Fold:
Amino acid sequence: MRNPTRPPAVPADIRTVPALFRHAVQTCADAVMLRQKELGVWRSYTYAEVGEIVADLACGLVSLGLAPGDVVSVLSNTCREWLWVDLAGLTAGGVVNGIYPTDSASQLEYLCTDSGTTLLFVENEEQLDKFLEVGERLTQVRQVIVFDMEGLANLDDPRVISLDRLAELGRERRKAQPSLVEERIASRRPGDLAVLVYTSGTTGRPKGAMISHANVMAACRTLEAFLPPTRLRERAAFLPLCHVSERIFGEYYALLVGQTLNFVEDPDTIFDNIREIQPDVFMAVPRVWEKLYSSVTTAMREATRLEQWAYRKALAVGEQMARCQEQGMPVPRGLRLRFWVARKLVLDNLRRMMGMGRVEVAITGAAPISAELIRWFMALGISLNELWGMTELTGAATCNPRGRSKPGSIGVALPGSEVRVSQQGELMVRGAQVFMGYLNMPEKTAEAFEDGWLKTGDVGRVDEEGYFFITDRMKDIIITAGGKNITPSEWENQIKFSPYVTDAVVIGDRRAYLSCLVMIDQDNVEQWAQERSVAFSDYKSLARSREVIELIAEEIEKVNRHFARVEQIKEFRLIETRLSAEDEELTPTMKLKRSLVNRKYAALIDSMYADKAA
Structure:
């Protein structure tokens, strides 16, 4: 299953994504590009195979009338077909826009209208239904192409065809016009728009970030220059491809350095699939790393006393190694030997159990993460490096160097990126990866820049070694009634290290004291309750249980001890509804939207301040 051959370096004159893909197909034809399961068995596709599929689909798009610069949208979960049509759309000279599979029909309508989508890909019947609900108003969408036609055999709609039919049209067009693919690839220039990524609309309508071919190539070249090459380069693809992280660090960067993408079966099988894949390179949002940590702590609660003792001893040795690494100190010979024994007897087994047995490059990004969680992974021998970026940066601008990580920091500026702290404390970035601007929003684009520097909205600082630290979002800083400035993310990151907490939002702007809303981790809290014979029937009753409320109170008190009195949480409430990516309170990367939570749970928040004194 491994893919050990490293492709030749990509020449500097490869400056667009379709040219990059063509180069990969020509130089790595027989290497495995991607895998996905079919009926429970991994099916491999070589670069040559994918090259043929993409060429057929690209010519099919031209047959449907796609002109250079036209927008193609994709409404699907992450899968091989997503990648195929993305590369096909770009190869045909189009612009590709991703739509989250959790978006509603009304959101689909807005995104297609705002982007000017002419051709729409949907995953299956469920996603097609969203289009059919609003299709009469989407007159500019000429054709809808469906990946999986199960349940649609009797559909009679001239605007809807299958992906297989698109490929047939493409093969016919290729025979009639053999040079079409090369002509379309040649039509693209580095400064042309390649990708649209819509940012979450927590304060209004989503904004379409315009990312050029030059932006994509700069972002990928930056990662290539900064990250160490790995021996085997197996990747697990599971984050949404409409999110900039998986699109850049997953798909396009994989093309540049020859990594193999292994697509997970569905969001519910991520952790099972990771154990099968045992990736060499793994990037995930903090919530995934938190779940991996929780899986080990849960397993240790069920382990024998001997196993628990061995885990504590091995982890203690790992923590000593991690401290040496963090402080830049040489590791004593005896400690190296003890750590080798700890890994062989205990820690490597835990890593394999998580699916991290072979990981060489481990990255966390897209949201803040607890420094203690990073240190825990370091103790296992996994150098988990925090990366910082945003959609408008086409991915990342800073990252912690492997082997020189500073937990709590977002690392140093990546090659080609200039990062500075403004007089107001805001992080600002300049470089070739900075986006073109917001589609149809020239005023918002102008607001995003100052003297050629992108204003990121993150408040931070830089130390004497060039490591940057984020203290909070400028718009999230809380000013209490007493005039104290509070950065809520510091407290929130620490409480999320608890295996019983998924997320939390600190409240307190213009209030007498701080409070918070907490979203519990259902799996771990349910197991905790069952072990103690705590009665509950569903998620709501679990969150209302006196014992569970006391459990979370204890976890909050543990975190409070690390903060000054004015920064401590005085009251809290549990969110009694289990939230998923389909709920408006969560972003697609599973972060609670602070402004929306403040509005939606206003009554619950007010209850924490009724008749109470600071």
